[in-house]
Amino acid sequence: MKGNALMNAIKVLAGGALALGVLAGCGPAKQELHVYTWSDYIDAGVIAQFEAKHNCRVIVDTFDSNEAMFAKLQAGSTGYDILMPTSYQIPVMVANKMIRKLDHTKLPNVKKNFDKGYFACMLDKSMTYNVPYAVTLTGFSYRKDKTSGAPVDSWKVFTAASLKGRMSLLSDMRETIGAALKSLGYSLNSEKKEEVDAAVKVVLEWKKNIAKFDNEQYKTAVASGEWFVGHGYSSDIIQTIMDDEKGVIGFSLPKEGFTVCCDEMVVAADAPQPDLAHAFIDFLYDAEVCRANMASVCAPMPCAPAMKLLAADAETAKLASLIAIDAKVLAKGEVLKDFDEKPEIRKMYIDAWDRIKAGE
Asked: 283 is in which domain, residue-wise?
């Protein structure tokens, strides 16, 4: 009896203390992790799991191009912990002291689960500043029921007069000029002015047939039938295919070649929460977490055991087959390279893009 009475008294006192603490609002504030990434690129459930595990709050801001992300940081925007640039953007971020070296002792899952087959998609294989997040291939989605007779296996689809006003091109300098370069048989990393000038002429011809340059609307416009062809990223397109109950959406990787991009996770030089940032990167390399993330994002991620789990699950086996990177297909792709250490080449591309947007 005395023991029970004592325990009840302790419970009452503890409950009162808790109530006072809540009422006074004097509990410790949760840590906040700020992530700057592409839209629809991290599963909400995965974020919720991390928040629960680390008693923190994850705040996600988004950008629609590497150039927009870089410009915002260069203009002085601070407070981000994790950034997710594409590989080619990392060297200039290092040069501008925007990101810090990673502490790989805090990334045991990365060490254990990283699939070295993805080295082919990376520019910096040392992973000094970066850990790969996901790989995307740039092609286009198309409506099978609306493009009969059109060359849907080729970049020439954008010359099809029958599809005029029902197509879109990415509002991305390197991607769209790169597509035109590949259509001409050139490298999408060409440094030759005559080749880039020729690509400008190609894009200007394509421009006559498109509805707009766009990085977001194509995700839904092709599915709804508003557009019949949408230049875009494999992860977005595969998401629409997975949701396509009628089976009318196709995905093309043009026979002339295409872009291979590896989006990476880096920690900002002035990150308010560098330890939490490392914890988040490592969390995303947990096999079960990565499996759930891939199932949501629909992009291949370089966590070897996660891909095996995805393929073994009957509910996600179709997705696993769609996002698996075939070596023969990958051989037709080309990884974008950075021109920021070659300012004259970068200026050539910027001038070319300005001419395209102005409609030369």
From this structure: 31-135+262-324
Does residue 127 share a domain with residue 38? yes
* Number of domains composing the chain: 2
| 3-state secondary structure (DSSP) of residue 105 | helix
Residue 317 CA to its chain's centroid (Å): 22
- Residue pair 228/166 in contact (Cβ under 8 Å)? The answer is yes
The pLDDT value given to residue 122: 86
317 and 343 share one domain = no
Segment 76-132, tens digit of pLDDT? 999 999 999 999 899 999 999 999 999 999 999 999 999 998 888 888 889 999 999
Contact 141, 249 (CB under 8 A): yes
Distances in Å between the Cα of 184 and the Cα atoms of 32, 188, 256, 312 are 48, 10, 8, 41
* Co-location of 203 and 343 in the same domain: yes
pLDDT for 137: 94
At 24, list the tokens: 């006074």
219 lies in the same domain as 115: no
* One-letter amino acid for residue 352 of the chain: A
Phi (first) and psi of residue 325, to 5 degrees: -90, 110
Give this prediction's pTM: 0.80
Query: Mind giving me the DSSP string for 26-70?
Result: -SPPPEEEEEEEETT-S-HHHHHHHHHHHTEEEEEEEESSHHHHH
Token output for 148? 């009969």
**pLDDT for residue 275 is more than 50:** yes
In a domain, 5, yes or no: no
CB 312 within 8 A of CB 233: no
- Which residue in the block uniquely carries the two structure tokens 């769609």? 322
Reading the block at residue 263, the tokens are 């989006």
* Distance (Å, whole) CA 180 – CA 24: 63
What CATH number should be reported for the domain holding residue 86? 3.40.190.10
**Under 8 Å between Cβ of 304 and 114:** yes
Of 45, 24, 32, 92, nearest in space to 283 by CA: 45
Judgement on whether residues 342 and 276 belong to the same structural domain of the protein = no
